[in-house]
Design goal:
Layout (H helix, E strand, L loop, with lengths): L7 H13 L18 E12 L2 E9 L9 E7 L6 E7 L9 E9 L5 E13 L5 E12 L4 E3 L15 E13 L5 E9 L9 E8 L5 E9 L8 E9 L2 E8 L16 E7 L6 E8 L7 E7 L5 E6 L14 E2 L6 E6 L2 E6 L7 E16 L9 E9 L8 E9 L2 E8 L4 E5 L12 E5 L7 E8 L2 E6 L4 E6 L8 E19 L1
Parallel strand pairs: 1-19
Antiparallel strand pairs: 1-2, 2-3, 3-4, 5-6, 6-7, 7-8, 9-10, 10-11, 11-12, 13-14, 14-15, 15-16, 17-18, 18-20, 20-21, 22-31, 23-28, 23-31, 24-25, 24-31, 25-26, 26-27, 28-29, 29-30
The protein binds beta-D-fructofuranose.
Length: about 500
């Protein structure tokens, strides 16, 4: 493709967006989370800073609120809080990506062009079991921040460049960066060749290049070895606070202690690089988020040096709750990352504070049974809460925050100090599909006071525990008009609460 105007597929997508996305009222969209412009969104892609703006692309099917042949949607922001949709950037319009333009990343080339690196999936017929044989290769496109032209020499990395014993149908999601050695590097998710009646085991492969076009194999950065889920998707690796961090999204996870839940999940591996092999020497491993709807993380190094992470605020296991909406899929609030004592900490980007309005605060409120407070309600709010026992010798046994509450509907965050368990629950949120409705996490530390920051938006709740050492994220389908918030204690608790509306 020499020029984007030559692509009928991209043209059709842009025409469809232009004709129909304006018909979706702002009232049925999140206030400060980026949703699909129209139709379906999954993984955030190409998170980058180009010509004074943050660019965020995403896995996109504009024609339905279901997954379909993948395009890249596109949005920009100057503050990571308010997003503007741009025309779709990529479409599945080449023989090597006719099954889909899958996930990838972006960076700014030294000559000023914006580079996208993505997985092209080619439909190579059927597997013996009837599934599509999708050959996955890594491709690039160059652009100016709006229009992108696929490189005529695509693919730039194909499965012949994988080491012996790797599966050509699972080789995807390149995350590219420019290293301090002056070379481009890129990591992809891959796995061993496997029989279709067994589970593959994920491996993260790394490639290097002097020009982002000609690549050679560099090393196997990490291996699952059958431990956490199967195939590892969407890798991202970076140095932070003196440690090397690898974020991945494993498929087919098994529930394990209080750390991992079943299904598609997220994993942070923290350690250092082996100087000889380039492989990650793991020192610790954790879930990134303990909620329900969180997958496919990607980070950026912001111009002021912060490592900021986004993720798809949904999960493959909960997509059946989409259905009737004109858009489906959103991106979490961008989160600033840090590593402390071998643990990943997350905190909403500081830019969110400039979207705060209408402060309402109370201190030392005694809560026994259910309490509502004047001015504390809403579905687009930033809530900070600290809860202590009223009487240390006779502590409360349970503390609950109800939100998105009205009529028969509510969702909740419940803390039981005896087990240090924090549980989110959306059973009565108006869910009409039998998707996961609750999740819990055990606090890592507790000094007698529960401290939470809760970000509500029209269709979601994100909970940051303490200083961000744990987070829980879930989508909430309840009618945004139901905006009640109340507090409940079994026994007697004392609470400080501060609330802002987010606009
Ligand atoms: C993760 C993922 C990626 C892939 C994309 C396809 O959610 O499966 O591995 O590139 O979605 O839409």
């Amino acid at each position: 493709m020499s020029n984007y105007t030559d692509s009928e597929t991209l043209y059709a997508a842009r025409r469809h967006e232009a004709l129909f996305s304006g018909k979706i009222s702002d009232d049925v969209r999140p206030v400060y989370h980026l949703p699909a412009r129209i139709g379906w969104m999954n993984d955030p892609n190409g998170f980058s800073f180009y010509q004074g703006k943050y660019h965020l692309f995403y896995q996109y099917y504009p024609y339905d609120s279901k997954w379909g042949p993948m395009h890249w949607g596109h949005a920009v922001s100057t503050d990571l809080v308010h997003w503007e949709h741009l025309p779709a950037a990529l479409a599945p319009d080449e023989p090597y990506d006719d099954f889909g333009v899958f996930s990838g990343s972006a960076l700014v080339l030294p000559d000023g062009r914006h580079l996208l690196m993505y997985t092209g999936v080619m439909n190579a017929g059927k597997n013996p079991d009837g599934s599509i044989d999708g050959r996955q290769t890594q491709c690039i496109a160059f652009g100016d921040g709006v229009n992108y032209v696929k490189y005529e020499g695509n693919p730039v990395i194909d499965s012949s460049m994988l080491p012996e014993g790797f599966d050509p149908q699972n080789f995807r999601d390149p995350k590219i960066w420019l290293g301090s050695d002056g070379l481009f590097h890129s990591v992809m998710g891959a796995c061993n060749k496997y029989d279709r009646d067994e589970l593959p085991s994920g491996r993260i492969v790394q490639y290097k290049s002097h020009d982002a076009i000609h690549w050679e194999f560099e090393c196997i950065l990490a291996e699952n070895r059958g431990r956490v889920g199967s195939m590892w998707e969407c890798p991202d690796t970076f140095e932070l606070d003196g440690k090397q961090v690898l974020l991945v999204s494993p498929q087919d996870m098994l529930a394990e202690s209080n750390e991992f839940a079943s299904g598609n999940g997220t994993l942070a591996l923290i350690g250092h690089l082996d100087e000889e092999t380039g492989a990650l020497v793991e020192e610790s491993m954790q879930s990134i988020d303990y909620g329900i709807d969180f997958y496919a993380t990607q980070t950026i190094l912001s111009p002021d040096g912060r490592r900021i992470m986004v993720a798809w605020m949904q999960n493959w296991d909960s997509i059946s709750m989409g259905g009737h909406r004109p858009w489906f899929g959103q991106v979490v609030v961008p989160r600033e990352l840090s590593v402390r004592d071998g643990r990943l900490y997350q905190w909403p980007v500081r830019e969110l504070e400039s979207a705060r309005r209408n402060r309402v605060a109370y201190s030392n409120v005694e809560v026994e049974g259910e309490t509502m407070l004047e001015g504390i309600s809403g579905r687009s709010v930033d809530l900070t809460i600290a809860v202590r026992p009223y009487d240390e010798d006779d502590p409360y046994t349970e503390f609950t925050i109800w939100f998105a509450k009205g009529g028969q509907f509510h969702s909740s965050i419940r803390f039981r100090p005896a087990e240090l368990m924090l549980k989110i629950n959306r059973k009565h949120s108006g869910l009409r599909r039998a998707v996961v409705k609750d999740r819990k996490c055990q606090l890592l530390s507790y000094d007698g006071e529960l401290r939470l920051r809760v970000l509500l938006d029209r269709y979601s709740a994100e909970i940051f525990v303490g200083e961000g050492e744990q987070t829980l994220t879930m989508t909430v389908p309840t009618d945004p008009a139901l905006d009640g918030i109340s507090f409940f204690a079994e026994g007697k608790a004392v609470m400080d609460v501060e609330k802002f509306d987010l606009v």
